[in-house]
Protein: Alpha-actinin-like isoform X1
Organism: Limulus polyphemus
Amino acid sequence: MTLGLIWTIILRFAIQDISVEGKLVMYYKMTLGLIWTIILRFAIQDISVEGKLVIYYKMTLGLIWTIILRFAIQDISVEEMTAKEGLLLWCQRKTAPYRNVNVQNFHLSWKDGLAFCALIHRHRPDLLDYSKLSKDNPVENLNLAFDVAEKHLNIPKMLDAEDLNTTAMPDERAVMTYVSSYYHTFSGAQQAETASNRICKVLKVNQENERLMDEYERLVSDLLEWIQKTTPWLENRTTDNTLSGVQDNLEEFRKYRRVVKPPRVEQKAKLETNFNTLQTKLRLSNRPAYLPSEGKMVSDIASAWKILETAEKGFEEWLLSEMLRLQRLDHLAQKFQHKADNHEEWTRGKEEMLESQDFRNCRLNEVKALKKKHEAFESDLAAHQDRVEQIAAIAQELNALDYHDLPTINNRCQQICDQWNRLGTLTQKRHFDLEEAETVLEKIDQLHLEFAKRAAPFNNWLDGAREDLVDMFIVHTMDEIQGLLDAHRQFKQTLGDADKEFQALVELTKEVENTANKNQVPGGVDNPYTALTATDLIQKWSEVKELVPQRDQVLETELLRQQSNERLRCKFAEGANVVGPWIESQMDIVAALGMGMQGTLEDQLGKLNELEQGAIQYQPHMDELEKCHQDVQEAMIFENSYTQYSMETLRVGWEQLLTSIHRNINEVENQILMRDSKGITQEQLTECRSSFNHFDKNKSGHLQPEEFKSCLVSLGFNIRNDKQGDAEFKRILSSVDPNNTGYVLFDAFLDFMTREKTDTDTAEQIIDSFRILSGDKPYITADVLRRELPPDQAEYCIQRMVPYSGSEAEPGALDYMSFSTALYGESDL
């Protein structure tokens, strides 16, 4: 048996060129001589002549095993392992799907014969039915495998079934030698396995890319839908025209800024990151660039986001201006009602008095008195003309500012104006009647007349002073409250002269009483020229003196409030003047890192991560400033001269800083991924970055087409200045700018430079792999795909391959050529 095994090895590896007829007529002696010649040549050529004469039995067997190793096993190679380990791994992979088979060695694992049957069935399922085999029939299994191998596979029967089954520990070298014959017989199937692995790798990459595309489309649709729903709300300028309603709108807007918008900002940054990562993976796997659906480009998202932020800024400005307008409207409405109340109080009974005919039955002095009294009334009426005009002016301003209760305001203003016109007409008529009666009446009490003339303007001054002392006001700055304080201080300086006038009128009233009593004038105590009495003046004067300290208190309270507002301005300015320059300095650092010339990519990534952590740690400063800004807004503070930074500019700067850090981190990570996958050295990467930055004149982070062309020429690319050169440059530009953005990013530039020097998978390689699986046929069947590929990737191919249209195709044949070209964008999938 040993000689037969050696003879088999020699036939296969040593004398392959001898004809079949020659083999059949070989004599036993010639065989032994040839065997000895081979032993001398390959096994003991270094042994001396004396050593050759004393070879023992064990040495002979060792030499035989050396020959077997040299010609049958040594050339077996699986994943760079030793021949024995590689052969064992090959057996484990081929028999893994079969039940009751567990190959762990070359002795006990083969005793039941199922491992031999599994190897045959894996490569030639038509030779035996594995499902009918049983572990309980080891000898039958072994004989079946040996007979089939000898008859159909031309593998000599080197082992004995009963001997292999009954031996406690079968000879490992004999089993290994016999199994190696199976390996060499089925070595062609190894090519199919390699082709299967290549297809699995490509399909796995393609499936992952499709998943990223679907996720990008879903996230973009969700974000755009949210923007489309939110923008109309921010562009809405309708309100119930009340201060409380606008304040509710402002609180809702603050909630939107704090709660609703931040997750969407993160979603937008994630979208840009996923898109860049997807494009990088597509370039690295030699796939065409991903072009999103219409309206879902990154530029579309940026445009929609810009519209949203514009509407957001306009909405906040409108809310603040609307609050200021409504506050002023409420103040004007209260002022209108107050002045209207005073005017109606003054006009009460005036129409009845003017229509009275009391002077018809009066004596001359009484008529004179009535005339003088009417003159005093006319003086008072003229003095009230300014108040009526003020009421009308306030009503007109309320109409111009679209006050919410205009019908009530306009109705009352119209009533006051109509009444004022009637008073003017009645006053003129009564004046004419008294002029007619004046010829009959001669005596006039000079004292009453003087009192009436002096008391009327003083009384008007008192009424005006009372109105001014209780007049409501609204101020926003220290200058405004200081102006009110100065005006009130000037008013108090006039109280001395007013007191002298008051004392003079009181003395005049006393003199009238004394004169009337002395001369016993009927009704002389009653002043016929005015309805004012000393009591009225005394009461009003007392009220003015009581209102002065009250006004002092109101102004002092408002002064304290404005001082508090001033402190809020200083507090916000102190924080803003720190946060603003910090954000600007961080933006400068990020921009410098974005140039890519500060150390290795890992150093740049580390610095960017440090900047990101720094920004996260700096977030409490922004939150504190937001709280301070909310206090400022609640205090109705709209201007701050202590700082050039507004909360809006700081928010925008903060969002730009975070977006810039995330974008640069993503770019550096993509560059690291590209460097590692392409095998680029740091020196090559630095050289590419240096060339890119040199032609990026405006430091924008990308190259215009002409700058990119100049960069290529400087790197040695031969781009001629003719039509052929222009066509070549357009081809290169389309590969680095597939979305036609009009500029070239550094990632695309680096990918182009490395792609020119490295090899990647191609459609032709995938077609060759499918051809191996199909047995050199122009088509492939679903059964072959399911047998050679994992289940999920086999179904992936079956669903996407179109039926083969050739005349020689069998039923269910699939076209793997069009499918392979579609994977690399060379046709429609």
About this structure: The longest strand covers residues 702-703. DSSP finds 30 helices and four strands in the chain.
